[in-house]
């Protein structure tokens, strides 16, 4: 298990608002190495599978619709203690509760359309990286 890796997606709202490069800049400036990168639009099937843990939540359908309405940037990141460090960098799920200086405080508009995804555990980071990338696409 690589405890120095995490997975992120820049969500469709970030791309629509022209925040792709500013957010990637914040990620690199915080010391994360981008070891895999992909610009793609998820299918509804992919988004449902990626977020299957939330399938019983009231916001699930809206979440899948949002995440598939346009392209996302998927990335695997490397840094010591990557999962926790990245969750700190992105801030709380709800931007109204996110700390100053976090990505969500700066770029997210709402709890649903909140700019970025970040893995919540080392185990899920590995699952999510493999969901989006083959081994040959990762440059560690
Ligand atoms: P996280 O992205 O901070 O880990 P989760 O609880 O794992 O937050 O939820 C996954 C995603 O589902 C959130 O990033 C957000 O886009 C959406 N979401 C979570 N809670 C709500 C809600 O109460 N209303 C609408 N969307 C939500
Ligand atoms: Mg989560």
Describe the model.
- This protein is 39% helix and 17% strand.
- The protein is of the alpha+beta class.
- It has one domain: Alpha-Beta Plaits.
- The two termini are 14 Å apart.
- The mean pLDDT is 97.
- The structure holds inosine-5'-diphosphate and magnesium ion.
- The site of inosine-5'-diphosphate (IDP) has 9 residues, from loops.
**CATH C-level class:** Alpha Beta
Task: Give average pLDDT, whole number.
Answer: 97
Tally of contiguous helical segments: 7
Arrangement of strands in the largest sheet: 2-3-1-4
Which terms summarize this structure?
alpha+beta, 39% helix, 140 residues, four-stranded antiparallel sheet, single chain, Alpha-Beta Plaits, binds inosine-5'-diphosphate, binds magnesium ion
Write the layout of secondary structure elements.
Elements (H helix, E strand, L loop, with lengths): L4 E6 L1 H5 L3 H10 L3 E8 L3 H7 L9 H8 L4 E7 L3 H9 L12 H5 L8 E3 L3 H11 L8
Antiparallel strand pairs: 1-3, 1-4, 2-3
The structure holds inosine-5'-diphosphate and magnesium ion.
Outline:
This protein has 140 residues and is α+β, with helices and mostly antiparallel strands.
């Amino acid at each position: 298990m690589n405890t120095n890796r995490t997975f992120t997606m820049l969500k469709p709202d970030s791309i629509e608002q022209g925040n792709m490069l500013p957010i990637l800049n914040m990620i690199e400036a915080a010391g994360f190495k981008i070891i895999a990168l992909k610009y793609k639009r998820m299918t509804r099937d992919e988004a449902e599978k990626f977020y299957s843990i939330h399938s019983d939540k009231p916001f699930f359908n809206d979440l899948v619709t949002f995440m598939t309405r346009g392209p996302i940037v998927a990335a695997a990141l490397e840094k010591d203690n990557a999962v926790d460090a990245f969750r700190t960098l992105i801030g709380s799920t709800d931007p109204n509760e996110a700390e100053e200086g976090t990505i969500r405080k700066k770029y997210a508009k709402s709890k649903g359309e909140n700019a970025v995804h970040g893995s919540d555990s080392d185990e899920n980071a590995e699952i999510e990286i493999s969901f989006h990338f083959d081994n040959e696409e990762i440059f560690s």
